[in-house]
What does this fold into?
Amino acid sequence: MTTDKQIQNDSIGVGVDKGLKIEAELVLDCLDQEILVISKDFKVLYANAAFLEEINSSKEKVLEKFCYAVTHNRTSKCEPPNDPCPILKLIETGQPTVEVHTHLDKNGEKFFVNVAAARIMQDEECVGYLHVAIPTKNKTLQKNDMAGAMRRTQDILEVIDLYQKQINDIKSKAKEIEKTKKDLEKKIADLEKFNELTVSREMKMIELKKRIKELEKSRAA
It folds into this structure.
């Protein structure tokens, strides 16, 4: 598995980039991790059920909004010390990355959230970012938590990649079936034209033979 999983999408059509849509939405909605798909200009193109439940909102209210506004009620990109932006780090290094955010629970207690980011690739071009938030159960920051967050993010990329390939295979087969159908329809149309010409020719031959017999009879008389 590569460190920067490429997701091949040839069928996509929503979002700021007009070229990005994750076909595996139903799969991502079943995961416990809070998952966002973010455009290159930092707008939310997709939010899974876990994320929407965490912020008590709906897709209609978060889609096309800036990610930092949706996740932190900010008017500018996330920054240190409490909320370093993993996407900015990803852009800087070119590698998937994990940053630690400090959040508050309902009792005002601080807890750490590992926020991982990885590029989504289409035709060898970055078209957006996968953003995964995984809270840690530890009261202190643990390196193994960050490593686990990255592994989980890569697993999610694998799921998306597999689902995309399956969808693309289905669409490819559907195109082949449609092409075969059109080819058959053309052959049927050509055959019908041929039959029409053949029947017309046979009718003319019958009429001609009939006319010859009539002429022969008239001469004999």
